[in-house]
Amino acid sequence: MSQHDIGLIGLAVMGQNLVLNMANNGYSVGVYNRTTSTTDEFTEGNAAGKSITGYHDLKDLVANLKSPRKVMLMVKAGPAVDAIIETLTPMLDKEDIIIDGGNAEFNDSNRRTAEVEKSGLLFIGTGVSGGEEGALKGPSIMPGGSKAAWPHVKEIFQKISAKVGPNNDIPCCEWVGEAGAGHYVKMVHNGIEYGDMQLICEAYFILKHALGLSNEELYDVFSEWNEGVLDSYLIEITRDIFSVKDAGSDEYLVDKILDTAGQKGTGKWMSQHALDLGVPTTLITEAVYARCLSAQKEARVRASEILSGPETKFSGDKAQFIDDVKQALYASKLCSYAQGYVQLNAAAEEFGWKLNNGDIALLWRGGCIIRSTFLQDIKAAFDKNPQLENLLLDDFFRDAINQAQPGWRRAVSTAVELGLPVPGFSAALSYYDGYRQARLPANLLQAQRDYFGAHTYKRLDKEGTFHTDWIRERKTP
């Protein structure tokens, strides 16, 4: 039997589509699934006639791989990955490569890189974004781990990835960094995705409830938005959603869907690590909390019958307000990406990773959920200044925010006056206003901490650390 270019373990839909993608690009693939019937159904079905061979025994799969052997795992993140690595390790030779393509937590990839390298093997933890369709037609791929492994998988990964550029020849796949860097970048991607989706939902909610726009009108608004600076995959699919009617009726499907949002944890991971790093990733954290609040459906229904608020009808210039909401969405998105890159920089410093922020933006231009037109502007910003500490300081982003500010502020203040929740828009605006202040009220906070806990403080006019006996020095009431 001829030897395979790569082996893949885990034949759920994402795994199957990646295998088909590899075969369609000229690679021979050996596959294995714990449930052997799944392997047989795949090889006899969608994989029939292609350069794909199924195995019922892992040893047989490993024995039929070209050296250095490359085995990709597409199984549920967590203990299952560790179990398969433990089983595979004795079967592999020095410098063979284990690849985890699942949605792993980056700390697990940090640990697995060290453990696999200690056994003489190489490890890659790679983010794969684009869903089922992306896996088949070309995903965004974000590999990290053992750098020595990259030359052996580069051709396969870049060939099966999405392509962008004038000639459609720039792969959305490049080496990210060592250890868990690949999965960290994927986590940040997913966090930005959480933020983008929340912001779009807030824009929809305002237009629907403040202006009373119909789904047909919403379709037209989002169609127009997708032609300009907001051009992106998520705006495009949102437009499409407004056109779909419920089967067998004349009513729109989106209005029939229960308003409780699910999540798989990556947004939460990003927020948790932002707290560990001490960086203010506020918008994405608010997007996570918004999903948590949506899940409290029964409590919200009860509260809606007790708690009151203002009327939610807008009486001003309708066209102007639609544009204000557009500006709020755009400016907030820019803040979301800025926060994401601040966290990437903080993580790179924490773990000693040498991340190329411009290249990371290119990884997201195709195949993934957050692909959008201004990712090229992010690339240009970091090409101009690789040490840029915040995207908001780049000329393009500064000017875009300045132009959007009046509408952004009007949209947020109007939503507040009408009693419509906009946690994403307002978190982004508060972050922007806080970041542009040379002086914040934390001086008072430090005084409070020193008053009740003797935590000390520093001064603007003197070097050193100080403590005041506030009770003795205070004015007696």
TrEMBL record:
<feature type="binding site" description="in other chain">
    <location>
        <position position="291"/>
    </location>
    <ligand>
        <name>substrate</name>
    </ligand>
</feature>
<feature type="binding site" description="in other chain">
    <location>
        <position position="194"/>
    </location>
    <ligand>
        <name>substrate</name>
    </ligand>
</feature>
<dbReference type="GO" id="GO:0006098">
    <property type="term" value="P:pentose-phosphate shunt"/>
</dbReference>
<feature type="active site" description="Proton acceptor">
    <location>
        <position position="186"/>
    </location>
</feature>
<feature type="binding site">
    <location>
        <position position="449"/>
    </location>
    <ligand>
        <name>substrate</name>
    </ligand>
</feature>
<feature type="binding site">
    <location>
        <position position="103"/>
    </location>
    <ligand>
        <name>NADP(+)</name>
    </ligand>
</feature>
<comment type="function">
    <text>Catalyzes the oxidative decarboxylation of 6-phosphogluconate to ribulose 5-phosphate and CO(2), with concomitant reduction of NADP to NADPH.</text>
</comment>
<feature type="domain" description="6-phosphogluconate dehydrogenase C-terminal">
    <location>
        <begin position="182"/>
        <end position="471"/>
    </location>
</feature>
<feature type="binding site" description="in other chain">
    <location>
        <position position="264"/>
    </location>
    <ligand>
        <name>substrate</name>
    </ligand>
</feature>
<dbReference type="InterPro" id="IPR036291">
    <property type="entry name" value="NAD(P)-bd_dom_sf"/>
</dbReference>
<keyword id="KW-0570">Pentose shunt</keyword>
<feature type="binding site">
    <location>
        <position position="455"/>
    </location>
    <ligand>
        <name>substrate</name>
    </ligand>
</feature>
<dbReference type="InterPro" id="IPR013328">
    <property type="entry name" value="6PGD_dom2"/>
</dbReference>
<dbReference type="InterPro" id="IPR006183">
    <property type="entry name" value="Pgluconate_DH"/>
</dbReference>
<feature type="binding site">
    <location>
        <begin position="10"/>
        <end position="15"/>
    </location>
    <ligand>
        <name>NADP(+)</name>
    </ligand>
</feature>
<comment type="subunit">
    <text>Homodimer.</text>
</comment>
<dbReference type="InterPro" id="IPR008927">
    <property type="entry name" value="6-PGluconate_DH-like_C_sf"/>
</dbReference>
<feature type="binding site" description="in other chain">
    <location>
        <position position="103"/>
    </location>
    <ligand>
        <name>substrate</name>
    </ligand>
</feature>
<dbReference type="GO" id="GO:0019521">
    <property type="term" value="P:D-gluconate metabolic process"/>
</dbReference>
<feature type="binding site">
    <location>
        <begin position="75"/>
        <end position="77"/>
    </location>
    <ligand>
        <name>NADP(+)</name>
    </ligand>
</feature>
<feature type="binding site" description="in other chain">
    <location>
        <begin position="129"/>
        <end position="131"/>
    </location>
    <ligand>
        <name>substrate</name>
    </ligand>
</feature>
<dbReference type="GO" id="GO:0004616">
    <property type="term" value="F:phosphogluconate dehydrogenase (decarboxylating) activity"/>
</dbReference>
<feature type="binding site" description="in other chain">
    <location>
        <begin position="189"/>
        <end position="190"/>
    </location>
    <ligand>
        <name>substrate</name>
    </ligand>
</feature>
<dbReference type="Pfam" id="PF00393">
    <property type="entry name" value="6PGD"/>
</dbReference>
<dbReference type="InterPro" id="IPR006113">
    <property type="entry name" value="6PGDH_Gnd/GntZ"/>
</dbReference>
<dbReference type="InterPro" id="IPR006184">
    <property type="entry name" value="6PGdom_BS"/>
</dbReference>
<feature type="binding site">
    <location>
        <begin position="33"/>
        <end position="35"/>
    </location>
    <ligand>
        <name>NADP(+)</name>
    </ligand>
</feature>
<keyword id="KW-0311">Gluconate utilization</keyword>
<keyword id="KW-0521">NADP</keyword>
<keyword id="KW-0560">Oxidoreductase</keyword>
<protein>
    <recommendedName>
        <fullName>6-phosphogluconate dehydrogenase, decarboxylating</fullName>
        <ecNumber>1.1.1.44</ecNumber>
    </recommendedName>
</protein>
<dbReference type="GO" id="GO:0050661">
    <property type="term" value="F:NADP binding"/>
</dbReference>
<dbReference type="Pfam" id="PF03446">
    <property type="entry name" value="NAD_binding_2"/>
</dbReference>
<feature type="active site" description="Proton donor">
    <location>
        <position position="193"/>
    </location>
</feature>
<comment type="pathway">
    <text>Carbohydrate degradation; pentose phosphate pathway; D-ribulose 5-phosphate from D-glucose 6-phosphate (oxidative stage): step 3/3.</text>
</comment>
<dbReference type="InterPro" id="IPR006114">
    <property type="entry name" value="6PGDH_C"/>
</dbReference>
<comment type="similarity">
    <text>Belongs to the 6-phosphogluconate dehydrogenase family.</text>
</comment>
<dbReference type="InterPro" id="IPR006115">
    <property type="entry name" value="6PGDH_NADP-bd"/>
</dbReference>
